[in-house]
Design a protein that fits this description.
The complex is a heterotetramer, with 2 copies of chain A (341 residues) and 2 copies of chain B (323 residues). In chain A, 34% of the residues lie in helices and 20% in strands. Chain A folds into 2 domains: 185 residues, Thiamin diphosphate (ThDP)-binding fold, Pyr/PP domains (Rossmann fold), CATH 3.40.50.970; 128 residues, Rossmann fold (3-Layer(aba) Sandwich), CATH 3.40.50.920. With 341 residues, chain A is α/β, with parallel strands linked by helices. Chain A is globular. Chain B has one domain: Thiamin diphosphate (ThDP)-binding fold, Pyr/PP domains (Rossmann fold). In chain B, strands 1-2-3-7-6 form a 5-stranded parallel beta sheet, sandwiched between helices. The chains are: A alpha/beta (341), B alpha/beta (323). Chains in contact: A-B, A-C, A-D, B-C, B-D, C-D. The interface between A and B is large, with 37 and 42 residues. Bound molecules: thiamine diphosphate (2 copies) and magnesium ion (MG) (2 copies). One magnesium ion (MG) binds next to strand 4 of chain D.
Chain lengths: 341, 323, 341, 323
């Protein structure tokens, strides 16, 4: 379904073998390899140790690397995120798991006021190599407090890097990049993707932060998306292709920094663009993209930048609402179509 | 605990526990059939805590529960059909299908929104209590949560607020020995959650959470204190969830079989039935009660299954106040 | 300096007397009147009672209304915000003060997961008449953790109302509207405005939520702004007027909901628009405005929507950076000018 | 407390306290002249806590202080010129003028970023301690904060983490009786902050925070424990800030004059000077020490005032790691 065409592989591909694995397994593999490679990497979070994580991402890591490297924490997000901040300033590279992005709201201070700001306000005396791993997104039957997509909040905050992988390959390659980054990274997984399977080139496959992936080339309209919306948009593009409409689909992958050059190049070529994400539309990440594109590609635009996001309501529980809450293949098709009219 | 309560009273509690148990077993079945979307967090094994506590409340008192709140909510006397309808995402559900299993709310029965953010309910309960004081009402607030919640900072802030403002809240900690898959006592030093709470200056009690009368009595004492303006109390009920953290977790990989068996032998329904069965004719009476609950639940469940889904276009409903 | 031309006064103006007072006094007055009018209104926060608030906004209220209506709290933002949430569901109308907006990051859960969502997820069984009063903004010598403008975060969250008054008159009239609203309102004051003086029409002067204020009419370019940027933009407009450039300045006041009609009417008339705010530019509230305007007024725009915000760094302490950190009269002048070229 | 320490050792502590006192008095003057922008939060009156605690540390140990942290930071031996330069917003400041008074950081002296979010420092200190354990280092972390901070939930989470992981942290609570303008004991029930901390399973001590030797000894004990792998401790120093919460607050409207006078009579510098003055020639010696500190501060201050401001175009510096 998904055509991953990565532009860069910075690692040595000598021993690179391609394996089929799930998104969760790819993350697990990346964690294991980084724990192996660098003794300063530690993993912390609720149920990540003995149990292996509620989504299985940290499975077997504690058994392999011991409880000093893979730490089970109490339900104390402020406590253990702050602990990661302190540890990072003293030479460790913590990878912390916040089980649902919704729970970042109890510990936002440590992400926004501390991790993002301390390197700057100390005049660069400290660096902050932390990965805040979390997962977001709505699924049938998730309710208002377990379903949000908060990338717009994080992408607004200077000092943070914000990544959102869509495939097992990227889950692997981007997590490695995040762990090796000296900046704090908010690493947004998606609950609907953990079980998806795809090819992963192991060993030194790294996806540099700030690099998008054009997952489908096209000439009529550009679709900008990320995370679990990528397959939805790709299937919309497939459908439109049958009608002769050629959609270029860019998986942004890195929301901060944004791969501005790739976005602008595509938009200037097609003159039409729609942003599709699962975060709420009002003030969502699409707003930033629209603001940026209309500013830097004004003369190339044949139509306004289209924005699709979740309805501006808390996620309602009953699955009857799912198709009006989130963009769907059909609604994406009609948005892409209508921007061309 | 005082002397054993009269059989009639205990039968009433038994029936409520049975109702909760069977409501949840039915939910599990519906979930397995794919009819309930999303996660459900069952309190099977912990019914005595919910039912015992609720029995100590007046009908106009308030309850703030959690995602594991079916028991607390049902024990307040809400309509099981509306509860089924909510977990099934129907328009007739308690929250019109907007909330689901984790948020069964019924303001008309004193049931404030249960919370699925660990710890968030404690501050909210203090506010509900503050409002009662403010109105000169003598209603009290029962706030239930798990032991792992006492590792969440906001819970501490709430305990302190309740203490310094002498608020009519009963903090009921259902210590089911685990927070998700993590053993409770691995996450604290020592063996007492109550010491932490006592440090805020409120009385704490520990009770056998498998004994519904014990819970009811401990909570009743706390309710009396609260109603008399003497402030908050903490009651910790030692208990166990028989199943996993949620329906997708068998609950067996991280808990020793011996432990599970030990607690299952202390099933609050079995214990009470055994105690009651000393009385002549009791077995038959309980059987009859169970059957009538079963029938009521059958009806409620079927009605809920037949109930309509919300209308998609009403997705905005409830977001903002009218006007 | 500021020409306030309100369009509506919904109250009875029989006894309406106009007084000169500071922004802080206007807020104090509004609080006192609402406490007087409605016994369900309570005020909570750190140092708000006996001391009267670190910015003096709650001065004398505890003495007048007693410690049960005006409550001093411990340094427990999650605790007392949650307390407000519970109280609001049980019939009170809490007005809570969070001393600096930066501290909302320790208690975001109660604002975003609780206050904003509970009315919806209970199927409308509860309402949430809370005002979260806080103040934001950078001043010379404020550092990274006491200077943020976080309106973009709040405006992204369905269920919240977000207000940002710029004048004493609005501070008064909008706070009254906020207190009477049955929805949770994030009420963003500005630390630089507390001492500013202006006329306030007392008694039943209410500024309905969702209504902007065109503080200067113009025909060449529209400047959209709010809070402490209003006087800066007005002075830029004054300067440009001398060069024959006619700037329309709209003080948005209400960020959620937005007065979309007024914004679009003006933009369609001028064809040029610049948004100016103090929040960070990337993903700031201006992004939403740009996204919205380019979508709904695409054919009327003669130039891209301009966006000015704080530099995308934590606020640096040394005042030497102030003029590069925030929009200034000069930088606003040049942005307004350049959008016309 | 053990016997009185030898005079030389106490003179050393006196000098440090004097340095802190005079550094801050100079800051106050600079602030009044409009040369220091923004707020400064002085620890005048509390010097014994900062200096006593720092004296118990090894030079490679770590300090996590707060916005009221000048004392803690200076007592670690940082360059006063770089401190002056920072509060003045100069490029030569500890943080190149990016941090200011609330964030005087000096990693080369073990001074991690002081925090201006109440409570945020405690979790951060646990992390710094965890990193030491992880590296097999025997460094310890001193984490200072005010009593009001114990009402912030995150602080509790950190105390628990330190306890369960047996981290080498010393939690130093400077109980200066007020949190901003609010009396400390109005915001807790009862009269003990320490009980709360003890509930997490760590030893707690209360000391006279106006007696520098007493603080030094209590902290030294805690340091020994921490260094020996025995885990965290809590030391509470009873003290008082002589001035307001920040330079704009006279500190007199909400505190009784009698109380202020009582504590001012217990000025840690006066107390120590009085004690030392029993020794012959001591008054002269202290005077000489004070003068040399004064000269050093004159030089440092003047140099800082002459130091260049940062370049506006370097506003991005430090935000992200290079590359
Ligand atoms: C702030 C927050 N962190 C984490 C979670 C995920 N979570 C849900 S339930 C739970 C365990 C709670 O344990 P306990 O308080 O003992 O209650 P129990 O589930 O055992 O009834 C966790 C960690 C959450 N919902 N909210
Ligand atoms: C989370 C947060 N809430 C509120 C404040 C505002 N504030 C700054 S200092 C302070 C008082 C702190 O009291 P205490 O911990 O006793 O320390 P002290 O100032 O007395 O040294 C408050 C409320 C803050 N900085 N951070
Ligand atoms: Mg539990
Ligand atoms: Mg204090």
């Amino acid at each position: 379904m998904q055509q991953v065409r990565d532009k860069v592989d910075t690692g040595s591909s000598v021993a690179a073998a391609v394996h089929e694995m799930t998104y969760a397994q790819a993350l697990n593999r990346a964690l294991a390899e980084e724990l192996e490679r660098d003794p300063s990497v530690i993993v912390m979070g609720e149920d990540v140790g003995a149990y292996g994580g509620v989504f299985g991402v940290t499975r077997d890591l504690q058994a392999r690397f011991g409880p000093r490297r893979v730490l089970d924490t109490p339900i104390s997000e402020t406590g253990f995120l702050g602990c990661a901040v302190g540890a990072a300033m003293c030479g460790l590279r913590p990878v912390v798991e916040i089980m649902f992005v919704d729970f970042t709201l109890v510990c936002m201070d440590q992400i926004v006021n501390q991790a993002a700001k301390l390197p700057f306000l100390t005049g660069g005396q400290v660096r902050m190599p932390i990965v805040f791993r979390t997962q977001q997104g709505a699924r049938p039957g998730t309710a208002a407090q377990h379903s949000q997509c908060l990338e717009a909040l994080f992408a607004h905050v200077p000092g943070l890097r914000v990544l959102a992988p869509a495939t097992p390959a990227d889950a692997y390659g981007m997590l490695k990049a995040a762990i090796r980054s000296d900046d704090p990274v908010v690493y947004l997984e998606h609950k609907a993707l953990y079980a998806t399977v795809g090819p992963v080139r192991l060993s030194e496959y790294i996806v540099p932060i700030g690099m998008s992936n054009t997952v489908r080339s096209g000439s009529h309209v550009t679709a900008l998306t990320y995370s679990a919306m990528v397959p939805v948009v790709l299937s919309a593009a497939d459908a439109l292709a049958e009608d002769g409409i050629s959609v270029e689909v860019i998986d942004l992958r890195s929301l901060a920094p944004l791969d501005e050059a790739a976005v602008l190049e595509s938009v200037k070529r097609t003159g039409h663009v729609v942003v599709i994400h699962e975060g709420w539309r009002r003030g969502g990440y699409g707003a930033e993209l629209a603001g940026l594109i209309q500013e830097l590609a004004f003369d190339w635009l044949d139509a306004p930048v289209g924005r699709m996001g979740a309805r501006d309501v808390p996620k309602p529980f009953s699955p009857v609402f799912d198709s009006v809450y989130l963009p769907t293949k059909d609604s994406v098709i009609s948005a892409l179509r209508s921007t061309l009219c | 605990m005082t002397a054993t309560w009269p059989a009639d009273r205990l039968v009433g509690l038994y029936c409520q526990m049975y109702l909760v148990r069977r409501f949840e077993e039915r939910c599990l079945e519906l979930s397995r059939k794919g009819l309930i979307p999303g996660s459900i967090h069952l309190c099977i094994g912990q019914e005595a805590a919910a039912v015992g506590a609720a029995s100590a409340l007046r009908s106009d008192d308030l309850t703030v529960a959690t995602y594991r709140g079916h028991g607390h909510v049902l024990a307040r006397g809400i309509d099981p059909r509306a509860a089924f309808a909510e977990v099934l995402g129907r328009q007739t559900g308690l929250c019109k299908g907007r909330g689901g299993s984790m948020h069964l709310t019924d303001m008309s029965h004193g049931v404030l929104p249960p919370n699925s953010i660990v710890g968030a309910g404690l501050p909210i309960a203090t506010g509900a209590a503050l409002a009662q004081l403010h109105k000169g009402a003598d209603r009290v607030v029962l706030c239930s949560f798990g032991e792992g919640t006492l590792n969440q900072g906001g819970a501490h802030e709430a305990l302190n607020l309740a203490a310094i403002w002498s608020l009519p809240v009963i903090f009921l900690c259902e210590n089911n020995q685990y927070s998700e898959m993590t053993p409770a006592y691995q996450m604290i030093k020592g063996d007492s959650f109550a010491t932490r709470v006592a440090a805020y200056g409120m009385p704490t009690t520990k009770v056998d959470g498998m004994n519904v009368q014990a819970v009811a009595e401990a909570v009743a004492q706390a309710v009396t204190r609260a109603r008399n303006g003497e402030g908050p109390s903490y009651v910790e009920a030692d208990t166990y969830r028989f199943l996993g953290h949620y329906q997708g977790d068998p609950g067996t990989s991280y808990r020793p079989v011996d432990e599970i068996n030990y607690w299952r032998a202390r099933d609050p329904l079995l214990l009470l039935a055994a105690q009651l069965s000393a009385e002549a004719g009791m077995d038959m009476r309980l059987k009859a009660e169970e059957e009538s609950i079963e029938v009521a639940l059958d009806t409620a469940q079927q009605a809920a299954l037949d109930d309509p889904l919300p209308l998609r276009d009403d997705v905005w409903e409830g977001l903002y106040a009218a006007g």
